[in-house]
Write the structure tokens for this entry.
Amino acid sequence: MTYGYEMKIMINPAIPANESQRLQTLRDLKLLDTPPEERFDRVTRLAKQVFSTPIALVSLVDEGRQWFKSRQGLDATETPRDISFCGHAILDDRIMVVNNAETDQRFCDNPLVCGDPNIRFYAGYPLAAPDGSRIGTLCIIDDKPKDISKEQLQLLRELGRMVEEELVAANTATVEPSTGLSNRNGFINIADHLLPMCRRKDQPATLLLFHVPDLYEIETESGRESADALTIELAHMLMACFRDSDVVARLSFDVFCVLLAGSDLDGADPARERFNSQLSERNRESNREHEINVEVHAVAYKEKRHDDAAALLADGESRILEAPSEDVA
């Protein structure tokens, strides 16, 4: 009997041929069910901003679920694998793009399409572990249909590679333990992806360095715990004053930095003013054992002068030795 309408049946994702190895590789990374980490969150924040989508995720596809190591714009921490878009995306090494899920046979009656979060657009970069196993995705999601350009696909691919580098890096190699911020190696890894993106898009970038000249003295007088408490407080202040997509790092014991992709020196001023205001307010509080005195230096990224992130850092750090708080165009 024909009822005059087309039956729609959701297509569950297939199981990869190397599923056993893939699952073992995923579990060996020891990331499943761990707390959020800034090294992944900064990438999803950046993806959300770059692509103007309400949702960006780092999704890890386990045996029966997809679990979100990092999530922006989504409350759920996981969804069943059999309704996941990422379960389909890991079946290929190319970026999977769904322009309009309502018209895609695989997803048209998917609960994630028919209900919250009402997925229409999806693009997922399959994340590969060192052995080649595809363990999850970096994905962007919108509740409206949309197209994606070749240039945008390349940007998503580069952001995905940033996540892959973090998957294989030992946490202590890229993260400063007392603050949880990127250390010098972690910052260079990220900046060496972001600066080429700025060049291709003809966008500016600005590096701000925050030198705490009294920190060694504070450690000598009051101990390492007091110095660590100040640096943790300063890290929180920097994270609060700058954009989610800006890269905050601790370069050395007494030097922090922020890389603002897409902002020139003038564009960085509002965040600097917020930081200065918050720092002044903090130092005025009478119950503080120590003030935090900070010298701020700004360097404009110049392609001809800065071959890579290390050169940009070297330029900025040389200014700390030469003169306090001097902007460099």
About this structure: The chain has eleven helices and ten strands. The radius of gyration is 22 Å.
